[in-house]
Amino acid sequence: QSELLFFSAQRVGQRGPITQIVSGCTPEQRQAVEERHASLGLSPQHMQHFVPEYNDARSYVINKPYGIQAWLRQAGAQREVVAVIDPDFVFIRPLTPDIDGADAALGWPNSTGPPRRVVKGLVAGQRWGIFASPTTAVSPWIPHVDRNFTNMTD
After folding, report:
1. How far apart are CA 139 and CA 144, in angstroms?
2. Model-level pTM greater than 0.90?
């Protein structure tokens, strides 16, 4: 998945670094992953950062938040704006800090709608819907959920 993500970023001309956070590898696995990454001929801005395994018997979902935290502490963000994307993300156009919320914003708390640009403290992704329309009362991609996420019925 992450290889497709890297290739799609190159294809659309995505600017800026992309760091894949890889967790829980043995030394042998890490070497194989690094060799595979090096063999792809990717931009030097497409990097990998290795972190320990954080998941345990009680949780299999903590690698992502703790991996991001470890990356930020060890390597640090290289830009003012950081987008956290999953490895199955595919770029169809470059990702920028500019927000075109004309038809995508879901349930913004004020009447002015979303800001035009990502700013400190703004988490835009939680309110974004690919297929949402400002005139539909219900989000078409999550049945029975109103656009303000206040009346979940199913």
Report:
1. 8
2. no
